[in-house]
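Protocol step 4 of 5: obtain the predicted structure for the target chain.
Materials: sequence only (see below). No template structures provided, no constraints applied. The aim of this step is simply to have a reference model before the mutagenesis design in step 5. Sequence pasted as it appears in the construct record:
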Amino acid sequence: MIVTAGDDGKHLVGPCTALHGIQAASRPPDGDHTEFDHTEFDQMGVQALRRRFPPRPPQVSWPHTEQPLEEVLRRLDSPSFRAEHRKTHVPRLHGARKILDWLAACPGDTWQQRWLASGQEQSPGAHWARLPTEWLTAQNQAAHAGVLGSGLLMLICADVIRPSMAWLLSRGSCTLTTGMARYRDAEGFAALEQVIAADPAITNANAQPAKARIAVILASKGGRITDITVGDCVQFYDTHSLARPQGAPGKKLFYMLLHRAGVFSADAPATLRALCGPAQGQLSSTALVDRYQLAPGPIRNVIIDYLAERRPSLDYSTLNRLALELAGLFWADLEHHHPGIASLHLAPDVAAGWKERLKTKTRTITDPTTGAQHTVSTPAELHRGGALDGPRVLSRYRPVGAGGTRPMGAMGRAQPGQGHRAEYQEGKASGQGPHGPTDPRAPTGPAHPDPRRERTPQDNGRTAHRGHSGHAR
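Step 4 output (structure tokens):
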């Protein structure tokens, strides 16, 4: 079951019941929750190279971000930024004006300062348009996410604002690369195309993501491709590894393309591996949880503790999925929709809302011709072993004293130890597990006989009779 009644009349969603039992034993909420990482390796050489090639520091003032609103719009309406079709160009200008009107209401002397003060960096992903939409609606102005997105794209390509790498990665815009290649640095991207064409081993499937990574660096750091530094690439690699630890095509290829294009100095390492070290393998339980940027506190600590205790009995893929279900699909979702939430006791409407959101998958689709973005919601594939099943499995979890949890087997079922064999067998017969009810879908009734029990003379006779009959046939 996903929702159960709590002692106080409120509801506990599946992960709540699992984690509530160990919340009291978790670390102090106001302390740093760290975990010893066993995947250590010597990074002295790596750190020395990183100090030698630092990234460009962030800036809040440069010529294009200091321009007045009307001057920015005149520049965007110039031939160098004008789209081929009027139906594409006009919505971009409208969107850019609306974004600038919204930012103008924020404190700051430059557009970049206003962007940072707007709170937009704390609202990444598909819901980025919420803040400007709320302000525009309050001003009785129309707000369309597609128009706002196309206007924001032009402001980024024109180097009026520079969102952070993390924010840009959360958006995953498929038009940023095209925009940067057309409006920011056509010569730089043309040079990259020559490098790609010269190496038949580089496929289009790898080249496109690599160019997208270079476009993100340009958008967040400013300038042209020739201005990119080795440190910028290292900073992007670190940010990308945190945002998407599972990896993706072209994750390090972008650096090689820049190196072959002659962007870096002669003493720059030939590959990104020298600056990032060898693959570190599996992430720690803390790192698995921190991918979802949970607020520091007891709930985050409890999830980390639970994953750390389950880790010895799970393969890494299952552990990674469990972290997604608990930290991502469950608690990160609740923190996003209910800011400040800090209790595992959920009101009925909060629990019901979480379940409904879990049943729907929201995607942002971009029109390749106009750049307009549309949000599409489709039913999520919910199956046994998925996100809805994870809370049910975890609801059977209980701590065993101060020594940790009882060993878990497949699907989270507790494995009986020597001292719990009788309790386990008795529980099977009554429909009760050693820690509470078992799967409600499982049939009740007498337990299946244990094949390891002591054999009786009647059993031996039946076995001999079956063997004799089989031999006669």
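Step 4 remarks: The chain is about 50% helix and 5% strand. The two ends are 50 Å apart (CA to CA).
Proceed to step 5.
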